[in-house]
Design goal:
alpha/beta; seven-stranded parallel β-sheet; 2 domains; 20 helices
Length: 517
Amino acid sequence: MKIVTAAQMTAIEQASEKAGVSTGVLMENAGLAVAVAARDLLGGAAGRRILTLVGPGNNGADGLVAARHLRRWGAEVTCFVVSGRPDPDPKMDLALEYGVRVIGAAEAGELGRLLARSALVIDAVLGTGRARPLEGPVKETMLSLARARSAASPPNLLALDLPTGLNADTGEVDPSGVPCDITLALGYPKAGLLNFPGTEHAGELRVLDIGVPPNLPEETEIDLELLDRRWVADRLPQRPLNSHKGTFGHVLVIAGSRNYVGAAYLASQAAVRSGAGLTTLASPESVYPIAAAKSTEPIHLPLPEDSEGRVNLQAAEVIFNGSRRYSNILVGCGLGLSDGVTKFVEALLFNNANRGVPVLVDADGLNNLARIYGWPERVQGPITLTPHPGEMATLTGLSNAEVQQNRVAVAREYAAKWNVCLTLKGANTVIAQPDGMVRVAPFANPGMATGGTGDVLSGIIAGLAAQGLSPSEAACCGVYIHGEAGRQMVSRLGSAGTAASDLLLEIPVAIRRTKVG
């Protein structure tokens, strides 16, 4: 599903008009879809008190259409016109015909009472067409809404396309903006809804089909997409009846050190749980007996280590001797940081004997990679990098804040510059391909903010890649499955006190749910 800027959405609407679907039709479709969502949220419309805050433009017109349908279904609907509507105003006229009560600035003193008695407020004040600071009647209305939302029994708040005050392109939020429970994006999600603080401000994001014609030229030119279930389901590996373990590949997981035994377990088990036919866990000799006792499914390959229990350069020779057996390699989880580990990573990634085997580099693999001078010029095979913001800052020389300020742009720039598939982890994980295509995951889950969840993600991606997915497909599908598993985990256990190992049994369930819908 495409993610659009305000300008791109305007171009799509204009192209839709040329294709025979007018702006008026899109408004009618949007208003009806919003009304259905509002009715479902309330568990029915009849007798429910709903207040729609109506702005001066198309967003307000969509709100008037929604108000009309909700009134038609028996709701007690009032529209508060925040600022002037055009004259004539057909959408307003139809709403009045159906019995919607409409008040304006002259009755602004009644707004507080209406907000207090409403079960639902629909924010249809400003959409994509305005990014200036809130002022005048719009600001005053938002301040009244904020007071109502801070009351003991606040109304539900549903934003139509964008919460008022949220920048459609950047995700910046005006100080007077009011956080919503749900944002209903019309046609396509806007880029600002997937960038903080916009993501948190928008609440739950739902995307509504408003009848934009498919395959518009303007749509095909957009290189930013939202990962959705259908896209992932179409790409997940099939499991033929006549398959065997060799059908689903053999992933090599190089992970762990004396201080980080758990990383080796989590990454290798995630590869197993994501469907890899065979998984080999290569870990330092002192880690091997602990990992083998805890993790029985993988094949175990002990590696030479230094005095601190970290792999050293000699470990690369052990890997190369068996590299042709492996479909792909995951390296980095819990390896630690040292000159010996850096030399090992350098030999593994840039030795000609390993050319052509897809490699995923995560965690300490990335930190050691950053110490290798000129490494981007030496990339010679399919490489996937999965940094969190701190690791990305280390790799690029940017500050953490600079990485987070525009995650999409940073990921896109460096995926192309380094010729890698780059997965920038965090809330709304970003997956960028070298050709400029970027996909964003629809998951922001505080229950995943605990050590080891990144190791699980890397294992999932590696397990999917072993089954034949391309690096970008494996990264996208892995991120989605990881996010869905996290959603299931939090639904079952809550968002505090969860552990990365809780994710492991959720992985096959997430795969099944994604496939069947």
